[in-house]
Write a structure and sequence with these properties.
17 helices
Length: 545
């Protein structure tokens, strides 16, 4: 009888039945003067934070929030770009016992922000509006309008602004009575934080985690922030409100985090400046999205002259090919890819090598279980393709205010990832793509990840996204949207011929029927490619919208 498609990795450590604040206090007691976060600025400026400073300042702000009516279980939004103040503000929310609703500040108007605050029933907002004068003006008009009603929210600026008279973290002062306000005893099972999904495949969702899940998931940074060695110094400029960029895990796990504003790290012309920060701060590891690894490869000659080598680079966010392993042995000893999602966190990892099998995502982290389910939710035999289900103590509690989505996403304690994959007869775990990334061309199912993996290896190709487009005869067709490397003259005919040699034709094989060249791909606020927008542009260019 064939084995079922199930694998697990038992957690050898005891469950840490603690809150986020409990662990912060433990870290402060162990290493009060340890520099745990470092913010770097253009031109060489630097700001840092120790465990002792973080606990003292966040506790002070928490007492201010409590004195203004914030109580355990309330929702408090935090909005802004990466900063030391953002970290202090978020931990202050935790100290009050409230739930931190993390929102990335984009180009939306304050009216849109207010709509989101109301939908999540936030009682307060900690915000960094940067220098957006219209946003600041509209925000001030709301918070200073005496007619706004009794349900008006508390507002506190993360950083002082000359454009606003709203109080900031630096303005907070406590009376003698407020200084001695008792702090709540936090329950590990209570909700702590809400991450908003990237929306790369549709509408963003509000993903809610408990203190217990965050604390016990922090071991994930032993790879995600530090290769396979703990307590290293890691560079990571991903947005704090994104799961892969959250400073929570490095702070709880004891990894020093070096960061810049995400908009700086996203620009390919800044890769040498980023590398200079990595050298200056003596980082041993770096968390970089695949496009940044490609930027490193494009500037390898210059980087090699600087004579600095990382221990490990961690990447993820999409399935990648072995071609990125070209960085290994040059500017880094190792390159790791992690697999996971906002909902389940980082569930497994693999070291990228030239001999890596496409789609193989490596070993599970301790405490994770994975199985492959069929159309009737039955666990399939090994070797069969099906939906990937995950179970773990460190995954989400539920989606906030979304009963229908919750009912569709959980079954008997398992979370439906929406990804498809297989577990081989030898126990290897392969991810083939998302269930909605299976293109049904006539009677043939084409996996976009397979096509993307093959095209990414072709000469001259820098990046590729494969999308489904409608077809009156076959229902769906395959369209490859691609970006070429600089100074490459590869034509569409060249790509077509090269694809046919590795993917077969577009009848019984997996070759795309359409090729569309892009100069760049649209991105989401967290730096990931906006696949929804890529598909929309493809449909418009093919006159299929």
């Amino acid at each position: 009888m064939a084995d079922l498609s199930y694998i697990s990795c038992p957690n050898p450590d005891y469950v840490r039945y603690k809150s986020i604040v409990d662990v912060l206090r433990e870290r402060r007691n162990e290493s009060p003067e340890k520099e745990i976060c470092v913010q770097r600025f253009p031109g060489g400026g630097r700001k840092s934070l120790t465990y002792d400073e973080l606990l003292k300042r966040s506790t002070y702000i928490a007492k201010y929030l409590i004195s203004n009516g914030i109580k355990p279980g309330d929702s408090v939004a935090i909005i802004g770009s990466n900063s030391i103040e953002w970290i202090i503000g978020e931990f202050a929310i935790f100290v009050t016992g409230a739930v931190a609703v993390q929102i990335y500040k984009t180009r939306e108007s304050f009216a849109e922000t207010l709509k989101l605050l109301n939908s999540t029933k936030c009682s307060a907002v900690l915000v960094d509006p940067d220098s957006d004068e219209t946003y600041i003006s509209d925000m001030g008009a709301y918070f200073f309008d005496k007619e706004s009603g009794k349900d008006k929210k508390i507002a506190l600026l993360l950083q002082k602004s000359t454009l606003s008279s709203l109080p900031s973290l630096d303005d907070v002062t406590l009376t003698a009575e407020e200084e001695i306000i008792p702090l709540p005893r936090l329950q590990p099972e209570s909700s702590a934080v809400i991450f908003v999904t990237s929306g790369s495949t549709g509408v963003p969702k509000m993903v809610e985690f408990t203190h217990l899940s965050i604390v016990n998931g922090s071991y994930g940074t032993f790879l995600g922030a530090s290769g396979d060695r703990p307590y290293e110094t890691c560079y990571n400029d991903r947005p704090f409100c994104w799961f892969g960029g959250s400073p929570l895990f490095s702070i709880l796990n004891g990894n020093k985090r070096v960061f810049v504003d995400t908009t700086i790290g996203m620009k390919k012309e800044n890769i040498l400046s980023v590398w200079d920060i990595i050298i200056t701060e003596r980082c041993t590891t770096a968390g970089l999205l695949p496009y940044a690894v490609l930027d490193i490869l494009a500037n390898m000659d210059t980087i090699l002259k600087l004579g600095y080598k990382l221990y490990a680079i961690m990447t993820g966010g999409q399935l990648i090919g072995s071609h990125l392993a070209d960085v290994c042995g040059k500017c880094t000893e190792k390159l790791f890819m992690v697999y996971g999602s906002t909902e389940v966190g980082v569930s497994c990892y693999i070291e990228i090598t030239p001999k890596m099998e496409e789609g193989h995502v490596g070993s599970l982290f301790p405490g994770f279980e994975v199985k492959i389910a069929g159309d009737r939710d039955e666990t399939l035999d090994r070797g069969h393709l099906g939906e990937i289900l995950v179970r773990s103590l460190s995954m989400l509690r539920w989606y906030r205010n979304a009963p229908e989505i919750n009912a569709a996403s959980f079954i008997d304690g398992w979370f439906r990832t929406g990804d498809v994959g297989t577990i081989t007869t030898t126990g290897k775990f392969f991810v083939k793509g998302k269930s909605n990334d299976v293109i049904k061309r006539g009677g043939l199912k084409v996996l976009t990840s397979v096509v993307e993996g093959a095209i990414s290896k072709l000469p001259g190709v820098r990046e590729v996204i494969v999308v489904a487009v409608p077809d009156s005869r076959l229902l769906e067709e395959v369209c490859a949207c691609y970006i070429l490397k600089d100074d490459v003259t590869t034509t569409e005919d060249d790509l077509d011929k090269n694809c046919e040699s590795v993917l077969g034709d577009n009848v019984l094989g997996n070759k795309p029927s359409y090729f569309l060249r892009f100069d760049s791909f649209p991105t989401l606020s967290n730096g990931k490619t906006d696949k929804v927008q890529v598909k929309r542009q493809a449909l418009e260019r093919l006159n299929l919208a």
